[in-house]
Amino acid sequence: MTAFAPDSLVLNRKLPLWYQVSQSLRASILGRRPDAPLRLPTEGSLAEHYGVSVLTMRQALKELEAEGLISRHRRRGTFIEPTARPGAPVRLLGSVDAIVAQQSGETATVLDHGRAPVPAELAEHFPGADEVMRYRRLRCDGSSGEPTNWAENVVLPGLADRIDLDDLTRWPMTKVLRDVVGVTISRITDTVEARLADPETARLLGVPLLSPILHYTGVTYDDEGRVVDVARIHYRGDRFSFTVTLDA
């Protein structure tokens, strides 16, 4: 059986090399033939193939391992997970400023806030923590006052002590953490999916039960790789769309 052969890639110097390499290799993995071997070439061979350093290649592989597409074994090599199939989330690269700009321009009301047990579905993001600080806000259109989305932010308690509720009525949590609290944000992982409005979402947004909702989850990391905030935002499906622009 021939070795797994990743696609070639023309690198764009405007984007991080590790990101471009990880996305190219990801596409090769998900688009592979059913009989393709599961073992990947060595880090050195892949780095030579893509024309990048071994350190860059290692970072790209680490990203794919975090997605569950590959597993790495000391002395044995790197292997594609047999369960890796098309349908895994596509990751798009942007800037923190773009996210802040997207979430700005609306008026927000703080519905409630306080300490709460770590939600079971978010436990992996807050290892060792028993409690988190939770904020819930309703955002409305600045001109019409019509509800557009409601957001829940789950934040580390140590950071919450420096958050002013007045700031949360004016700015997104991302901006508050970065510009007011002083957190150095390294990256934000976004997931967008279609859902149906549950009773609480329908009540807050003023839409019929089971209406289409655009559900956004944003996981914010600081420069030490620690998760400092998980945002879950419910957008009205009739007011928002998800658009991506890619430079060729």
List keywords for this structure.
248 residues, alpha+beta, 2 domains, six-stranded antiparallel sheet
Structural class: alpha+beta
Spatial strand sequence of the major β-sheet: 3-4-5-8-7-6
Can you tell me the overall shape?
Answer: elongated
What's the CATH H-level homologous superfamily of the largest domain?
Answer: Chorismate lyase-like
What's the quaternary structure here? single chain
| Pattern of helices and strands | HHHEEHEEEHHHEHEE
Number of domains: 2
CATH fold title of the largest domain: Chorismate lyase
Task: Explain this structure.
The chain has 248 residues and is an alpha+beta fold. The protein has helices spanning 17-30, 43-50, 54-67, 96-103, 157-160, 165-168, 173-181, 199-205, and strands at residues 70-73, 77-80, 106-117, 131-141, 147-155, 185-196, 212-222, 227-236. Strands 3-4-5-8-7-6 form a 6-stranded antiparallel sheet. The protein has a two-stranded antiparallel sheet with strand order 1-2. It is elongated, with a radius of gyration of 21 Å. The two termini are 34 Å apart.
